[in-house]
Recover the amino acids of this structure.
């Protein structure tokens, strides 16, 4: 009886042991294209990451997707391969049991075969090679059936030497395995013991394992391995794993390496796992062995389980760079295992357990104490598991089949609740009593016959039950079911969150019972919106560790947004049939969807997927709403093929992405080989960076693979060709096919993600070139181009010649019309000159009639002169003889100076003139002389074609890199036909107006010489609206577009750039000019301001707005020069000039008249009243400044002359005209001479005699001679004294008395200051 109670415990321990072994998933490869991968005895990985397998059939390369066989194309291909190794250069050495040793070079994909030669001792020692190894010196060692061979590559040649053949014989020469210890010694497992070949060249030694029985030959060794501590590990053909200690030279059998039934395995290979343990391939399975604890894990084949080890009998092992273990068997092929891959274990029984069939489609759940329970398929057995790993509590159930129980719940009191279609049953696990509650809703008499999906007992001890019929509250004491609000809902799940809110998932809807609503019956249900509106069954609602509420809908995963109070779909998880959501303790959400289990992290937004290739039940479909987590954090899920469990924290994520390589190129679905007739691949495809196709090779396929073997079935790929594909093409099959690509150069790009969804950072790029056919090559296109160009040239030449002839005819006609008009104009003007002259000659006796006829002749000669000037300008522009002299000017001020020239026209025709411009200077570079012609021409046309009372406006507009000057008028406008020809030479849009068709064409030429544009826009007048014409000038800013020859010398004026100083001007001249005062009289404020700025800095400036104010300032300040307008209010310029010249105080001041009136009689009138010069508006600022400067220079010369006449006591020279000023000075001199002996005759007396005030006389005399009154009087007296002394008639005292000096000493002192000699010296000289 005591032993029978221990049986469940022993059985459960065995169950746990086998359940753990079922957690690892193997990928098995059995055949390639129908050829079995039998006898896989050699495995290696090359430098690129490809896996290589040596089998009985030959050499294969695996790229995580396909196997490719490699051979040399001859009869002698490597077969019956026993071992593979990769050297540091990336070459692969192949040991064959029948054809010697091979060297395969992946860079060229070529084989080199080494075979024994009986006549050559420097050849391989035997044709059957068992093993191959590369030592630390890059020497290759080959163990054969008859000794050891060393292969060394020296200066590009292979040199082979034989070893051991003289020291040993027979079975000892059968070298089956090689290893090198840390001292560089070579150890060999042979058919007769362990051989050590020392690195010092001493004689090799043989060690044999002592056999307790003679019939057992333990020294028949299979493999040898030297670990980092120097211990030698040996596998014996007589079974068992041995250790050899080189220091004690003793062997030790590892007794713990036995199967569960105590059998010793035959160990054929050992590799370290880089974690302190060893992997071993044995005849009884795969072993994971811990040498420190002697713990052994066995992995064997489980029949019917495709995820188990492919074959129990293994012969070869290899650990790749990702930590993946490759196992080679003799009959079944290759098995792959990654120890850190996910482990999904069958639960609660392994598939081979007979009980597993009873729980293949069972029920699964968790009690309030986090105990996991499961109910069998037939609902006749209940298993309850605790959290400490003890055997489960097994309870037999007796539930009616007719009730169709579907939903179960285990409460805290060990009461199992089972809900059927019309009944709720309770079963007490302690008393084994059943109690049945008919499913009748309070207030109704009919039993509810519908399925129940959810049962929950909340923290308020309320008992919730829900199904097709809606949501009910069950009163356990009274056995009453009460229908809750929203009776039409179909409940699928009920959940209580950490805040004690109750969430109810139904069809298309989610409801909530607020935690504050704790009433026992009929609490309020709040409907939570779910968007977008789609058909959903909410089988599970859950809360993650961060407090977020998630709902598994059949179309998507939803997250509750408390701000918007709604469930919103998650876009990271693929849409589909989401059946369950279970949060783990690390913050991941585990989602079940049909055959796939997802792991999703909401914060990092990473997603992994797992299926039966990762260990989930084969062909199993996950059942909705049964995912469960136990007290230890382990998760449990239910499928229709059984249940499984796993530890979420043990599932690692691989964030590294190995290399992505091209694996195959196919042309018209036929694979292209390196160096074949297609000429596409000169080297292996994985090394190729550029592929050039002919035009008839533009249908091709590129295969590629990510060399990631961990979860290679989940690898994802995306590719595209720039210029062909707009977006990435995401595929699971790593292949890209393109058809009929047009000729050109493309970049093929491909990227990949590993099985855990991590994408590589940079895509793999390959240049693809599609060569054109010969008729689309560059030289063909050149020929086409030349042919077409020749044809186009011939056609264009024909039409050009025809057009040229027509244009020439039209131009000749235009010139003929022009010269006809000009001839007519000349003849008209000549007639108006000759006829009036003839008439005047006949009527000489009548002066009035003579004047009338002479006016006709004068006006006609003016018109004729204007015509000749325009013709000369036109000729200069056309011939290119005009050299621009551009400077920087303020176009606003230039325009302000030009507009007053048209004031007379504007007033006579009552035309309103406006200037719209910025307040700040607008600086442009141009030749002001040429541009004035343009402005004057455009304004003249505007006034000419504007009717009386019309409007003319000028707009100056600045943009970022240019300035627009627009001249507008509201005349009758220009029709579109005339507008096209407006700037054509000799063309007149309105023949009724005077002109010759030159002005606008000339203006356009001048603007284009300035690298600008002149265009015209016009709107013809209608009956209701006046017309409008706008001439638009566009000029570039800065001076970069002008040549150095076109840019004049820079001036000192930053505003207008027109005040050019003479290079030879001295500092004294500049200083003198700055002391000069100019009076400007102009009624136009803008023009007066512009003129003031012209002279600002060089002169003292006085301003007057009318003639009367100008007279006042002239009398008050006695300026050095006066510039006055002619047409002014109150007193015009001619009257001002007359007043200035008639007054003795101001008669010496130069006066310049400025006017827009160009008639000769007006100019003559101004000059007759004494004006010194006459300027016509518009004026060139350079001319006005030069004229003012010249007048002041003449005045200074006259002042110097007057001063010299005073100092030297001479009269005016004939070179200077005798005028009022000279008369005035002569009168003053006479007054001083007349009173020269009067000691009391001073400044006041002289002013009184001259009839002026002292101040007026002072300014007048100072202006004329630059001398004060005292200087003037003293100079005259001393000159008279000198004359008297030189006469010799008077002595010094007499002379001092005569000229009005009381003190002769003072007289002598002053005399010496002026003449440099004393009076006595002058007198003495004359006597001598």
């Amino acid at each position: 009886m005591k032993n029978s109670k221990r049986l469940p415990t022993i059985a459960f321990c065995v169950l746990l042991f086998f359940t753990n072994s079922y957690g690892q998933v193997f990928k098995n490869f059995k055949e390639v294209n129908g050829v079995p991968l039998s006898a896989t005895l050699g495995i290696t990985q090359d430098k690129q990451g490809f896996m290589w397998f040596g089998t009985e059939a030959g050499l294969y390369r695996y790229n995580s997707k396909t196997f490719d066989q490699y051979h040399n194309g001859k009869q002698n291909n490597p077969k019956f391969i026993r071992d593979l190794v990769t050297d540091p250069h990336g070459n692969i050495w192949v040991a064959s049991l029948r054809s010697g040793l091979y060297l395969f070079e992946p860079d060229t994909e070529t084989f080199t075969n080494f075979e024994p030669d009986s006549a050559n001792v420097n050849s391989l020692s035997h044709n059957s090679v068992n093993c191959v190894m590369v030592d630390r010196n890059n020497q290759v060692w080959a163990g054969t059936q008859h000794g050891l061979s060393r292969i060394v590559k020296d200066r590009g040649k292979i040199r082979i030497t034989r070893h051991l053949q003289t020291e040993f014989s027979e079975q000892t020469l059968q070298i089956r395995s090689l290893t090198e210890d840390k001292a560089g010694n070579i150890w060999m497992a042979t058919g007769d013991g362990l051989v050590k070949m020392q690195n010092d060249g001493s004689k090799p030694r043989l060690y044999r394992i002592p056999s307790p029985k003679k019939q057992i030959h333990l020294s028949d060794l299979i493999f040898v391995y030297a670990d980092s501590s120097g211990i030698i590990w040996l596998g014996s053909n007589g079974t068992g794993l041995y250790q050899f200690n080189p220091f004690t030279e003793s062997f030790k059998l590892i007794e713990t390496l036995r199967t569960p039934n105590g059998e010793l395995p035959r160990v054929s290979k050992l590799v370290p796992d880089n974690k302190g343990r060893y992997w071993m391939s044995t005849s009884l399975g795969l072993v994971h062995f811990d040498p420190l604890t002697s713990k052994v894990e066995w992995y064997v084949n489980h029949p019917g389980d495709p995820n188990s080890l492919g074959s129990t009998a293994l012969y070869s092992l290899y650990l790749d760079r990702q930590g993946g273990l490759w196992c080679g068997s003799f009959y079944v092929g290759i098995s792959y295992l990654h120890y850190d891959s996910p482990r999904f274990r069958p639960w609660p029984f392994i598939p081979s357990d007979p009980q597993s069939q009873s729980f293949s489609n069972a029920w699964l759940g968790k009690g309030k104490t986090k105990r996991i329970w499961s109910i069998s398929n037939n609902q006749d057995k209940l298993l309850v598991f605790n959290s400490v790993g003890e055997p489960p509590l097994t309870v037999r159930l007796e539930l009616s089949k007719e009730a169709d129980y579907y939903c179960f719940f285990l409460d805290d009191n060990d009461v199992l609740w089972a809900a059927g279609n019309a009944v709720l049953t309770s079963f007490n696990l302690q008393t084994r009593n059943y109690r049945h509650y008919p499913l009748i809703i309070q207030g109704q008499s009919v039993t509810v016959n519908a399925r129940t999906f959810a049962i929950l007992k909340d923290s308020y001890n309320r008992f919730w039950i829900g199904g097709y019929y809606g949501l009910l509250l069950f009163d356990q004491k009274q056995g009453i079911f009460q229908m809750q609000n929203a009776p039409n809902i179909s409940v699928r799940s009920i959940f209580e969150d950490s805040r004690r809110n109750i969430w109810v998932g139904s069809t298309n809807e989610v409801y909530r019972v607020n935690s504050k609503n704790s009433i026992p019956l009929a609490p309020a249900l709040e409907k939570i919106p779910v968007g977008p509106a789609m058909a959903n069954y909410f089988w599970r609602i859950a809360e993650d560790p961060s407090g977020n509420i998630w709902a598994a809908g059949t179309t998507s995963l939803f997250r509750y947004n408390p701000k918007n109070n709604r469930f919103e779909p998650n876009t990271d998880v693929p849409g589909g049939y989401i059946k369950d959501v279970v949060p783990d303790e690390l913050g991941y959400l585990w989602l079940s969807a049909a055959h796939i289990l997802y792991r999703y992290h909401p914060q990092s937004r990473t997603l992994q997927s797992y299926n039966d290739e990762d260990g989930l039940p084969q062909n199993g479909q996950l059942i909705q709403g049964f995912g469960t987590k136990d007290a230890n954090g382990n998760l449990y899920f239910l499928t229709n093929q059984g249940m499984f469990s796993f530890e979420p924290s043990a599932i690692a994520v691989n964030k590294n992405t190995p290399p992505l390589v091209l694996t195959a190129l196919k042309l018209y679905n036929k694979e292209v080989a390196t160096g074949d007739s297609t000429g596409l691949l000169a080297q292996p495809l994985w090394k190729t960076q550029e592929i050039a196709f002919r035009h008839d090779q533009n249908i091709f396929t590129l295969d590629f693979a990510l060399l990631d073997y961990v979860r290679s079935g989940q690898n994802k790929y995306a590719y595209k060709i720039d210029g062909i594909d707009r977006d990435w093409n995401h595929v699971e099959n790593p292949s890209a096919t393109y058809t009929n690509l047009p000729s050109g150069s493309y970049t093929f790009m491909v990227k990949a993600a590993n099985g855990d969804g991590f994408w590589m950072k940079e895509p793999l790029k390959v240049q693809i070139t599609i060569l054109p056919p010969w008729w689309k090559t560059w030289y063909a296109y050149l020929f086409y181009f030349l042919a077409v160009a020749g044809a186009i040239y011939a056609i264009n030449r024909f039409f050009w010649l025809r057009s040229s002839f027509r244009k020439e005819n039209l131009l000749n006609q235009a010139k003929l019309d022009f010269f006809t008009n000009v001839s007519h104009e000349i003849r008209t003007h000549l007639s108006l000159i000759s006829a009036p002259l003839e008439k005047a000659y006949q009527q000489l006796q009548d002066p009035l009639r003579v004047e009338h006829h002479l006016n006709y002749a004068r006006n006609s000669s003016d018109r004729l002169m204007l015509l000749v000037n325009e013709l000369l300008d036109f000729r200069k522009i056309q011939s290119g003889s005009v050299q621009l002299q551009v400077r920087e000017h303020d176009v606003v001020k230039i325009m302000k100076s030009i507009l007053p020239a048209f004031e007379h026209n504007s007033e006579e025709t009552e035309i309103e003139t406006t200037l719209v411009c910025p307040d700040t200077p607008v600086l442009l570079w141009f030749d002001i002389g040429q541009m004035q012609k343009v402005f004057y021409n455009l304004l003249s046309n505007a006034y000419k074609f504007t009717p009386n009372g019309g409007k003319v406006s000028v707009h100056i507009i600045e943009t970022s890199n240019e300035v627009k000057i627009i001249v507008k008028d509201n005349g009758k406008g220009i029709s579109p036909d005339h507008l096209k020809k407006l700037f054509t030479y000799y063309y007149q849009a309105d023949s009724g107006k005077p002109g010759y068709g030159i002005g606008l064409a000339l203006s356009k030429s001048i603007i284009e010489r300035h690298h600008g544009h002149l265009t015209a826009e016009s709107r013809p007048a209608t009956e209701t609206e006046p017309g409008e014409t706008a001439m638009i000038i566009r000029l570039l800013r800065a001076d970069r577009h002008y040549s150095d020859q076109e840019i004049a010398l820079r001036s000192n004026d930053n505003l207008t750039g027109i005040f050019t100083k003479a290079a030879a001007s001295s500092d004294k001249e500049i200083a003198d000019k700055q002391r000069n005062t100019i009076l400007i009289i102009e009624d136009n404020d803008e023009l007066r301001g512009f003129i003031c700025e012209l002279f600002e800095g060089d002169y003292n400036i006085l301003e007057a707005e009318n003639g009367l104010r100008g007279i006042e300032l002239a009398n008050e300040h006695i300026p050095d020069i006066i510039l006055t307008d002619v047409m002014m209010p109150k007193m015009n310029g001619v009257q001002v000039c007359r007043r200035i010249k008639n007054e003795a105080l101001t008669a010496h001041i130069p006066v310049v008249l400025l006017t827009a009136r160009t008639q000769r009689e007006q100019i003559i009138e101004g000059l007759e009243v004494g004006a010194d010069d006459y300027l016509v508006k518009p004026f060139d600022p350079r001319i006005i400044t030069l004229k003012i400067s010249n007048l002041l220079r003449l005045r200074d010369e006259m002042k110097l002359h007057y001063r010299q006449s005073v100092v030297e006591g001479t009269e005016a020279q004939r070179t200077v005209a005798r005028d009022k000023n000279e008369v005035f000075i002569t009168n003053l001199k006479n007054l001083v001479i007349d009173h020269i002996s009067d000691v009391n005759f001073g400044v006041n007396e002289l002013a009184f005699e001259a009839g002026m005030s002292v101040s007026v006389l002072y300014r007048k005399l100072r202006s004329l001679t630059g001398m004060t009154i005292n200087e003037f009087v003293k100079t005259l007296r001393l000159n008279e004294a000198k004359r008297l002394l030189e006469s010799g008639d008077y002595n010094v005292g007499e002379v001092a008395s005569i000229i009005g000096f009381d003190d002769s000493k003072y007289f002598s002192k002053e005399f010496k200051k002026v003449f440099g000699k004393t009076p006595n010296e002058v007198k003495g000289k004359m006597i001598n």
The longest strand covers residues 744-753.
